[in-house]
Amino acid sequence: MVKMAAAGGGRVINIGSIAATRGVKYTSAYCASKHALLGLTRSLAAEWARKNVTVNIVNPGWVETDMLGNAKAAISKTTGRTEQEAHAALANMHAMGRVIQPEEVAALCLFLTSDAAASITGSAYNIDGGDAG
Questions:
Q1: How many other C-beta atoms are found inside a 10 Å radius of the C-beta of residue 95?
Q2: Is 30 tagged catalytic?
Q3: Which residues on adjacent β-strands are paired with residue 100?
Q4: What is the per-residue pLDDT across 93-114, written as a single tens digit (0 to 9) for each?
Q5: pTM, entire model
Q6: Positive or negative, the Cα torsion across 78, 79, 82, 88?
Q7: Is residue 60 within 8 Å of residue 19, measured between CB atoms?
Q8: DSSP state of 39
Q9: pLDDT mean over 55-78
Q10: Residue 15's beta-bridge partner residues?
């Protein structure tokens, strides 16, 4: 960040998780680490704002990645559900009833690197298809 500031500014985007903003059963260590990343993001944003360095966090829900595949396999193994049933259960954790595509997360990150986001810092962006509660 020192080099970014010396170059006139820059952007830092941390990739967190919706677990940064709420507790999730059976994932206490993961949630703790993501809550810590949220706090770090906000602290660094405050420290570097006057040096034209923005720091934000993007918090995806379930995204179509290897992590999702591993979760589906674990659910299937533990519960006896098929992987398709596990996929549906994870997708239904989002109000939209679907998982997020990696390109959607990338598009949000690209926006945060743009000139249009020059005044956005210390912010947390959930990209989780809505909280299904």
A1: 13
A2: yes
A3: 63
A4: 999 999 999 999 999 999 999 9
A5: 0.92
A6: negative
A7: no
A8: H
A9: 96
A10: 58
